[in-house]
Amino acid sequence: MVGSPWVMEAAAIWGERWSSATNSMAKEYMEVACRKQSLVCLAADKPTMSELEELIDAVGPYIAALKTHVDLVEDWTAERWGAFCKRASAHNLLIFEDRKFADIGKISRHQMGGVYAIGSWSNLVTAHLISGPDIVDGLQAGWGDYGTEGGVLLLAQMSSRGNLLNPNYTDEVVRLGIQHTGVFGFIGNGSRPEELKLLRDKVGTEKMIWTPGVNLQTGDGAMGQRYGDPTEAVLAGSDCVIVGSGIHGADDPASSAKAYADASWAGLLNR
Ligand code: S5P
Question: Would you list the domain boundaries of the chain?
């Protein structure tokens, strides 16, 4: 990858985020984002394997990462999931299991195993820091148990209304997270650009901020979800917009994914 035209383009377009990134997976993501001109992570929240397979085939060219909730799939089998992950890799997508781990370090480590064996196929996972910073070491050990590597996205903010992640909590998550090499970045609130700007100021340039709560139709969503505009989220400091129903709930997921890709890319070019 070193010296390829895409790397040079990624360095120019991402600027300081590229030059100060310490994490190789972050560079992998930024390069794929440039190749596809998309800062979209698909939240593939579909309950059956066939719907997941159909979705990834339709939108793969327009997205730069894939987010899963493995435990909501009704007909999950290890074989079919393995094939699904291969499909994602064929589209050069990092696979991000949004498990929102929160237990003590040693239990989180074991939860990377179990039936789903998350540590064997995920590149990224989410975690709350409510139990303290050892959870990051636990998750890193969980990947190590499979001889794989990965990065943790810590929830610094949430998109849902009334959430309990107050500014003091956010500050502590950022303070502890930016020091840890096992932390890939932070989840920020994509529905509130002003909150996101503050988060970016605190995080600095080294770590990623990925943001759910993004939809081209801004406003309130189902069950307390809130939505902001993808271009505004990127302008405010988001490196990746996480989009679920805006894509998988659309009549034509492929053209919708393309619209989110265009909106997010415009944000990066203007940033
Ligand atoms: O604060 C958060 C954090 C996450 S990771 N708010 C969220 O909505 N998410 C996830 O983003 C959520 O689990 C879901 O998979 C996705 C948003 O989906 P959408 O359909 O609302 O776009």
Answer: 6-270
- Residue 2, pLDDT > 60, answer no
> How large is the average pLDDT for residues 125-150?
98
Q: What is the pLDDT of residues 159-214, one digit of tens each?
A: 999 999 999 999 999 999 999 999 999 999 999 999 999 999 999 999 999 999 99
- The minimum-distance atom of ligand 1 relative to the CA of 45 is 15
Half-sphere exposure of 184 (CA within 13 A, CB side): 26
Between the CA atoms of 21, 27, 30 and 31, what dihedral angle is there, to the nearest 10 degrees? 140
Mutate to test the pocket of ligand 1, among 71, 72, 95, 159 (most ligand atoms within 8 A of CB): 159
Whole-structure pTM over 0.90, yes or no?
A: yes
Number of Cβ atoms within 10 Å of the Cβ of 149: 13
Cα 172 to ligand 1 centroid, rounded to whole Å: 22
CATH topology of domain 6-270: TIM Barrel (3.20.20)
Query: What digits encode the pLDDT tens for the residues 73-94?
Result: 999 999 999 999 999 999 999 9
Token pair for residue 118? 């998350």
Active site residue 100: yes
Query: Given ligand 1 and candidates 98, 163, 189, 210, which is best to mutate, with the most ligand atoms within 8 Å of its CB?
Result: 98
- How far is Cα 33 from Cα 13, in angstroms, rounded to an integer? 10
Does the beta carbon of 261 lie inside 6 Å of ligand 1? no
